[in-house]
Amino acid sequence: MKKIYRTALLSSPIMAAFELSPVFFLHVYGYSLNFWSSLITLTILTLVIWGVNIYVMNILAKSGRGNNAEWYALSYIFTLLLFALLWVFLHLFPELDDRTNKPSIIFPIINILTLNTIILIMSNAIVVRSKKEKVDKELAELKIKNLEAEHQALVGQMQPHFLFNALSTLSSIISTDSDLAKRYVIKLSDFLRYTISAHDHVLISLSEELNFTQDYIELQKLRFEDSFFCSLNVPQEQINQYQIPVYALQSLVENAFKHNLFSEEKPLTVTIELKEDTLIVSNNKMPRRMFLDGEREGVGLKNLNKRYLLIVGKDIDIKDTQTDYTVTLKLIRTMS
User: Fold this and answer.
1) Nearest to 46 by CA among 84, 24, 18, 81
2) Over the stretch 222-274, which tens digit does the pLDDT of each residue have?
3) Tens-place pLDDT, residues 305-334
4) Which of 136, 265, 269, 304 lies most in the core, judged by the most C-beta atoms within 10 Å?
5) Most confident listed range (20-29, 221-230, 269-278)
6) Running DSSP on this structure, what letter comes out for residue 131?
7) How far is CA 182 from the centre of its chain?
């Protein structure tokens, strides 16, 4: 309704001038009029007709009926009643109309009906556009809710997978090195505490994700010792400038452990590098045929790629060679 009220106020003087211009340029009625008084009179009349149409729309809206034919019929009926009242008023007070050559009633009727038709067209256009905007907004909200639900489902798939691997590792070292097992449990508890707070987030700061991933790396160092090395090349002054989907970096590092068979003689090396607006994660390849949890190759990466499509709107970039596996993640700049 605000748009209709605003349109009524802005358009009424223009429509009044349009209605009035033939009188001055063509001299149809054969008498002279004062332009400004006539313009003000027609502007008021146009606003009244707008008011009639708004009143009709409100009546139909409150009754729950949205039939255009009923709206148009009531609009023309009320407009003609308004014209009849004005015509009777002028004839009751003839001194208000001092024209010597008075026009036929047919011309004012045509003018007022034309004016009402233009107002109906404009009103209908505003109503249709408002409905479309409302539908588009509702669809956008539903899409966002759907994306959030899908994202939470994808993140939820990752947590049981990680916990299974962590407990499997703990069970393998608890009987051989109790001190290592204790340190592993402490690191694991810190790591899981973070996952609880991060689970409800779609995006987190790069600094938080790096800290989270470094905790994960520490867990793996306790497990693999000299069989694993990590090189981190991320300037500290830049990490607060970016955001990243939660678990994105950690899942790539985990992917390197899951898909490679390494040892002290042939260690696994993971490199994390910040370059412009991208984070590059690479590792040397020593592929294994079977995976610890029996999962098919690529499922975790497909999960991450799907999340990236939902959040960032583009795929992750993967380069797979004979010797190296590299994934490039597009980072999101924080709002300054």
Assistant:
1) 18
2) 778 889 999 999 988 888 889 988 888 988 998 888 888 898 899 999 999 99
3) 887 887 777 888 999 998 999 999 999 888
4) 304
5) 269-278
6) H
7) 46
Domain borders along the chain are 2-138, 224-333
Beta strands 278-284 and 324-330: pairing type? antiparallel
| Residue 194: CB atoms within 10 Å | 18
Query: CA-CA distance, 331 to 321, in Å (whole number)?
Result: 24
Output the DSSP codes for 152-204. Answer: HHHHHHHHHHHHHHHHHHHHHHHTT-HHHHHHHHHHHHHHHHHHHHHTT-SEE
Q: Give me 83's structure tokens.
A: 């014209």
Q: What is the pTM of this model?
A: 0.52
Question: Closest Cα partner for 105 from 89, 120, 84, 124?
Answer: 84
Q: Which of the four CATH numbers 3.30.420, 3.30.565, 3.40.50, 2.30.30 does domain 224-333 have?
A: 3.30.565
Sheet holding 203-205, edge to edge: 203-205, 242-245, 332-333
